[in-house]
Each structure stands twice: as structure tokens, then as C-alpha cells.
Design goal:
182 residues; 3-stranded antiparallel beta sheet; alpha+beta
Length: 182
């Protein structure tokens, strides 16, 4: 049982759930029923809005977490690839250092010897990126006649190509005799 919202009489039926006319003041309380239904509808739509906002926030947080996880996986993959490249580079550097040490030791261990004709020479081991000009410069300095000296060294070591008038190909580790050319 309810109380009439207009006159305040108690004992009337529940006007929020059924159509009631107040026996005391003859007011049609259906308007209150309609207003209550509209208020419930607004409350329910407000709840739906809140639920939608909560769901949107949860989905946004999940999306950010997923993107963050994918970024971590990708960066870990890149870091691992970089580590492998670094290890490979360090291995190559170590091998090159060993090669330089070996070649330096070979260069220092070659003694000046005497040929049958009495000429002196040095056995030189070709290193990476050597060229005829670099070899001449190492032993004779920067000279204007370097190409003549270079040709004499090549001919003495059977490295001169008469057809092209140039050195044949040389490679690291190859031993060349450098004669005392004046």
C-alpha cells in the first residue's frame, strides 16, 4: 500500500505499477506511473552508458597492453638479432687480429738473404688491400719513379703481365721478394 503524492492519504494501491485514481482527492496517479517509468528508463540508459564506458576503458587498456606486449616481443627479437650481429662482428674482428698478428710475425721473421748474384732482398708477405704502389711506398718511400720500381719488383717475382703492362693479381699471404733496387 502507498501514500497519495497529491493529498497524502495512506492505503491506496501501488500507483507506480498500476493505474490508480486517489479515492480521497480523485487525482489520476497514472502521471506518476509514467514519470516513474521515464525515470527508470533514464536510470537504465545511464547504467548502459556507464557499462559502455567501462567496457570501452577495459578494451582500451587491453589494446594498450597487447600493443606493449607486441612491442616488447619485437624489440626482444631486434635485440637478439643485434646481439648475434655483434657476436659475429667480434668473431670477425678477432680473426682479423689473429691474421694481422700472424702476418706481422711472418714479416718480422723474414731475414735479408743473399741471392746467387749477390743481390740482397727481403721476403715480403702481401697483406689485405696491398697494391704495387703501397708496396713500393713501404720500402722506397714516395718516389716519382715508383712505377719503374714497381715493374722491376713484379718482373723479379714473375708478377708482370707483358700483354697488359701491369701487375698480375696479388693476394694476402703471398710472398714477394723485394730486391735492393737503387
Amino acid at each position: 500500500m502507498c501514500k497519495c503524492p497529491v493529498c497524502g492519504k495512506s492505503g491506496i494501491p501501488d500507483y507506480l505499477h498500476e493505474t490508480v485514481i486517489c479515492p480521497n482527492c480523485n487525482s489520476d496517479l497514472g502521471v506518476y506511473k509514467t514519470l516513474h517509468a521515464i525515470a527508470d528508463s533514464n536510470n537504465n540508459s545511464g547504467d548502459k552508458d556507464r557499462k559502455n564506458k567501462v567496457i570501452s576503458i577495459v578494451l582500451l587498456v587491453l589494446a594498450v597492453l597487447l600493443i606493449g606486449a607486441l612491442a616488447c616481443v619485437y624489440s626482444n627479437r631486434e635485440i637478439n638479432a643485434s646481439k648475434k650481429q655483434l657476436v659475429n662482428a667480434n668473431t670477425v674482428i678477432s680473426e682479423l687480429r689473429d691474421s694481422i698478428s700472424v702476418l706481422s710475425a711472418q714479416l718480422q721473421s723474414h731475414q735479408t738473404t743473399t741471392l746467387q748474384s749477390g743481390s740482397q732482398y727481403i721476403e715480403y708477405t702481401v697483406i689485405p688491400n696491398d697494391s704495387p704502389w703501397r708496396i713500393v711506398r713501404k720500402f722506397y718511400g714516395n718516389r716519382k719513379d715508383w712505377d719503374d720500381i714497381s715493374q722491376k719488383i713484379a718482373e723479379a717475382n714473375e708478377l708482370w703481365d707483358n700483354n697488359t703492362a701491369t701487375w698480375k693479381q696479388i693476394h694476402p699471404g703471398q710472398i714477394i721478394k723485394i730486391y735492393n733496387i737503387k
